[in-house]
Amino acid sequence: MSTVENGHSKCVSIGPHTVGNSLPFTLFAGLNVLEHSVDSAIEVAQQLATTCGELGIPWVFKASFDKANRSSADSYRGPGLKRGLDMLSEIKRQCAVPVMTDIHEPDQAAPTAEVADVLQIPAFLCRQTDLLSAAASTGAAINIKKAQFLAPEDMRHALDKCERAGNNRLMLCERGSCFGYHRLIVDMLGFDQLKAMGYPVLFDVSHSLQLPGAAGDRAGGRRNQTLALARSAMAQGLAGLFLELHPDPEQALCDGPCALPLAALALVLRDLLALDQLIKAAPAPTIQ
């Protein structure tokens, strides 16, 4: 269940972890989409377990069973609901980790919640009332991504829809805003606006590096700037960071240009852990 942190901001429990804006950050990381074999997902999960264990970072494995919003009809979408949930179950069993995955339709909520600890609402769907209500009704923790076309303050409506369905195990996730064609930017001041709504706030650095449609029939990306962007956001004092990884991003079946190479994981997390500890050791004073 959620608890109240400092009388204002809620925390959300996910398996053994407690996620909150003033707590040490939780990492939500994994593959963009489950690929043909579960082996690549388990490779990523095992590396995450090792690295996060060494650094003392709580983590949740993330991968999608379906990417329903690919640029092209010919793009790989994933193994689908049944096979995907079987794969996520295997990852949970082998790596003893909570898992998060996307849902796109209301009737996916209940079966997915039987496996996933966190249901993720994709950014383009964060205004879909039936989807939010169905997800909330499962009682699972929910990560709601902010649409690229919404202002931060507009996310209060998505929260309200979930609360009316009886669920306050909610998190908000920033993932960049549209800025002209083929470009996303991140409004750093928007993090404070999201946190003011009283729920944990995550930052999806991988998708914020995306260049939508820039590669013709697929998205481009700027994965070489992962650390630069993640540092900027983590300095705002966030509950968690969202990263997508791949053993070989050039061979990834989805969003390889945005994926952090698995070999760079430890380097990035050591840097961000030090920054998170520094920021949260001395909360920023309020300026009127």
Structural summary, described in words:
This protein is of the alpha/beta class and 288 residues long. It has a single domain, classed as Aldolase class I (TIM Barrel, Alpha-Beta Barrel). Helices cover 32% and strands 23% of the residues. Strands 4-5-6-7-8-9-12-15 form an eight-stranded parallel β-barrel, surrounded by five helices. It has a three-stranded antiparallel β-sheet with strand order 1-2-3, with no helix packed on it. A two-stranded antiparallel sheet has the order 10-11. α1 packs across α9, α4 packs across α5 and α8 runs parallel beside α9. The chain is globular. The two termini are 34 Å apart.
The profile of the biggest β sheet is:
8 strands, parallel, barrel
Treating each run of at least 4 consecutive H or I residues as one helix, how many helices?
9
Task: Please count the beta strands (DSSP E, at least 2 residues each).
Answer: 16
CATH superfamily placement: Aldolase class I
CATH topology name, in short, is: TIM Barrel
Strand content: 15-25%
CATH class: Alpha Beta
CATH architecture label: Alpha-Beta Barrel
Give helix and strand order, one letter per element, not per position.
Answer: EEEEHEHEHEHEHEEEHEHEEHEEH
Quick structural overview:
The protein has 288 residues and is of the alpha/beta class.
